[in-house]
User: Fold this.
Amino acid sequence: MTWFDWLIVLSLNAAIIGYGLYLARGTETSGEWFLGARALPWWAVGLSMFATNVDNADLVAVTGSVYREGLHIISVYALGSAAGGILAAFFVTPAIYRAGFYTNAEYLEARFGPSTRLLSAIIQIQYRSSMLGMMIWSAHLLLTRLVGLSPGLAWALIVALVVLAGLYTAWGGLRSVVWTDTAQGVVMMVASVVIFAAVWQAVDGWSGMTVALQESGREDLLHLGRYRGDDGSTSPWVVVIAWTIVGCGYWTVNHTQTMRLMGSRSIWDMKMAAIWGVALSFPIMVVSATLGVFARAIPELSDLPVNEVDTIYPALASQFLLPGLKGIVVAGVLAAVVSTFDSMGSALSAVFTRDIYARFLVRNHEDDHYVKAGRWATVGVLSLGFLYLPFIWKQPNIIKAFTTLIPVFVTPLFTVYMLGVLSRVHRRSGLIGLLVGSTYGILALVDREVYDLVAVPSWLTSRWPAFCWSLMITALTMAITTCILGQDQGNTTTWSEDKGWLHRSREQLPALLEHPFKGRVPGYLQPRWAAGMLLLAAAYATLVLFW
Assistant:
């Protein structure tokens, strides 16, 4: 890294962080802090969703995963994200938005009771803080392998980034996060194009890479349909279904995304924002993913050991980027770090403050007390990510750590959300289904990672089928419970039991808007047409183009 590279890195990120601190001024009420006063336009929310979705762990982990296993991970960014974004923006989040709730866990109490809300909040904090740990580790890899910092200096810089992101997030809430994310998203896109173009030229483009893979006998890495799991016997269809479940769970359960949708100024903006966020994410993640197969065409990188695959992205950047361009890529990576730190800080502090602290611990204080609690919670949740580092170190790569944790609690919770919104399953079925599904997830995790349970067959607990089994076991449990106790007769939109500040803060929200237009929405701007095209493009990419 030259002085010019460092100037680019520091200037871009300092400007964005300074902008975040500037926007933080004047944020006082809980409606402003938690939901940006429901005044955010679709294009800003979509850019923020993109910046949150494509984090530095994705850039590092996806490249390493593709190098080792091929392009099957594209499924989650194509079909998984398209299906998940549509489910979230067209079905799940509008139900929460219209009911006047701040968090998706808050909706679960109205639908399934307080115990389900509490469990959902705990699961979300565990889920996203574990992802935060993966981002911290990938940032360390980039700073030590690409930038060349010593481990101690790299850790110091990471802590500084966490503190700075936490500072403007804690002070300004969702509005500061969304508008800084839009700027960070642009920097990330430019950085991705820069490194892709440099590596593309180095290997003589797609044809040069294909020839190199054919000569090494690894042409299978280019095709989703040729990947058959860790054991070589898993159907590629199971892998695609599993990744689709992951994508759907991410966009619906993950409050870092649903919080942005609920900050939209209207239902129309919410739907268009999700479509925009997914549409931006897919090409950038294809670019990052293909870097993994390009690396196979480079002699000195063509045969790395499994525990070194997460170093490929920094190795490519270090080897092929000229001064100035390297600074742009590092600036993009650090922008991804900060954008995800601030997103998780705002979302998880909202979940803790509303769904645990205000609901179960301290109920009857004034609005400014809970705004302050949310600010302090931001610091706490950002610190949780460091606790997962010992587990991540033990995994062969970051993606393996990710797919090991997700089916334990997140997939059952996703199932509860979907059946709660789309069906009339009984009120008690949510808690029962979540407990049974999570119990299966824990047993499967123990069988895979800790101790081989002889009485449990491997086809029931192995990495990819576990996603499908987790969903089916949870859904079946909820269906059986409903058959025994009967269908739900309640109406969540009329739930108004007094919960002190929680109820009062809902009354502060501005009136619900269906769309921002005068009169009717023009036909060509109907979100359903854009959603249909997005889903078709995602299916084509997954099942035809890369199959």
About this structure: The chain is about 75% helix and 0% strand. The CA atoms of residues 353 and 383 lie 16 Å apart. The radius of gyration is 23 Å. The chain has one domain: 3-388.
